[in-house]
Amino acid sequence: MNQLAIHGGNPVFPEGPPVWPVVEPGVQAALLQTYQDGSWGKYHGPHCAELASTLGQMHGTEFVTLCSSGTIAVELALRGLQVGAGDEVVLAGYDFPGNFRAVESVGARPVLVDIRPETLCLDEKLLEASIGKETRAVIVSHLHSGTANMPRLVRFARQRGLAVLEDACQSPGARIGHQIAGTWGDVAVLSFGGSKLLTAGRGGAVITPEADIHQRMRVYSDRGNQAFPLSELQAAVLIPQLELLEQRNKTRRENAQRLLRLLTGTPGLQPVDTCSQHDWTSYYKLAWLLTSDHLTERRDDLLAAFQGEGLAIDAGFRGFARRSDRRCRRASGLNHSAWAGRANILLHHPVLLESPTTMDRVAEGIHKVIMAFTQP
After folding, report:
1. Which of 183, 230, 251, 289 could form a disulfide with 270 if both were Cys (CB 3.0 to 4.6 A apart)?
2. Do 75 and 140 have their domain in common?
3. Integer angstrom CA distances of residue 363 from 32, 111, 287
4. Are 12 and 46 in the same domain?
5. Do 322 and 218 belong to one domain?
6. The total number of structural domains that make up the chain
7. How far is 344 from 351, CA to CA, in rounded Å?
8. What is the DSSP letter of 48?
9. Are residues 203 and 251 in the same domain?
10. Domain encompassing residue 61
11. CA atoms of 250 and 241, how far apart (whole Å)
């Protein structure tokens, strides 16, 4: 009865995981409207302006730069902060690889600090030891189901004269303390990539309360036209998704909490959590760390078994623990970052919009696989 699907048993979800993006009438209507009015093929139109305005209202600023990806958004943000050759930028040893490359792209040097294993986010307590005379900025990401300690991090950065770049690509609409993610730092970035909670296939945005940062990004991007554009068609399909974001985040949060309760006591799994009980994340991914050496060593087999049951569970980032000293400076040991890189497993978000009964089935599938790998 509990034989794994990869060994010939019945999968928990024979239909497989839900697709993303979902069929959305508001998006369908937006696509039809852009076709009818011709804005889908224009350089300029109403949709980018409306999207920028809506994002600005959501984040309490008028300065929003739409762009072609969350990855280029990080580079633009660094250029807006005037980070360049000879500077240093602090970031976590476990993070999206594009953030490391963005620092290199502006000519700066990445400085790595370890993460808090319970959140997978930068450990703000290690910042003091990471600061050198060339340090100019900190990149802090809210990853998977974790949130960074923004109040402490921003307070420290202000005391030391450092800029804060907040990466909210995985956490649109999340709440950290009393503020929305993306409003804590000097500048923040969003992503509209194909797997993201707000998707246009590709795309991103940079948000800042500072007019001078916004202007520097505009000047850099102007090559006779916008060199890193978001199209009118992409903007049009994002607007109706923004209207649904708050309710969808609430549904994902409730379902994630139900799933975590159902899996309490499952051996070998440590859930990744928010920094504070008052934080609300968006659950782009629901993350766990494998606490058993046996499970960690067999992670690829474990993931194959999850996927055989129809669960969209995969590995996350590898992290930077093995990056060469020629490319970066290590300001602390990276033991937690290394562990996260080899021991993380992530449930993709689409299923978190399903019913509570479906969460019960997800828990059944996860428990089935874990027990098959842990029982003699």
Report:
1. 289
2. yes
3. 39, 39, 14
4. no
5. no
6. 2
7. 19
8. H
9. no
10. 25-241
11. 14
Model confidence at 80, pLDDT cuts 50, 70, 90, reads: very high
Supply 341's token pair: 């890189």
- Beta strands 88-92 and 109-113, pairing class: parallel
Q: What was the pLDDT predicted at 2?
A: 84
Q: In Å, what is the CA distance from 17 to each residue of 14, 80, 309? A: 9, 40, 9
CATH of the domain at 369: 3.90.1150.10
* CA-atom Rg of the chain in angstroms: 21
Same domain, 234 and 338: no
Do 66 and 12 sit in the same domain of this protein?
A: no
CB-based contact 130:149 (threshold 8 Å)? no
- What are the tokens at 125? 């307590």
Give the percent of the chain with pLDDT over 70: 100
Report the alpha-carbon distance of residue 85 to residue 189 in Å, rounded: 22
Task: Report residue 280 as tokens.
Answer: 């609300």
Q: Could you give the maximum distance between any two Cα atoms of the chain, in Å?
A: 66
Going by C-beta distance under 8 Å and a sequence separation of 6 or more, which residues neighbour residue 87? 106, 107, 108, 109, 134, 135, 136, 137
Q: Is residue 376 very low, low, confident or very high in pLDDT (cuts 50, 70, 90)? A: confident
**Percent with pLDDT over 90 in the chain:** 98
> Please, are residues 60 and 210 in contact by the beta-carbon 8 Å criterion?
no
Provide the pLDDT for residue 167: 98
pTM: 0.97
Q: What is the pLDDT of residues 201-246, one digit of tens each?
A: 999 999 999 999 999 999 999 999 999 999 999 999 999 999 999 9
Whether the predicted pLDDT of 1 surpasses 60: no
Amino acid at 237: V
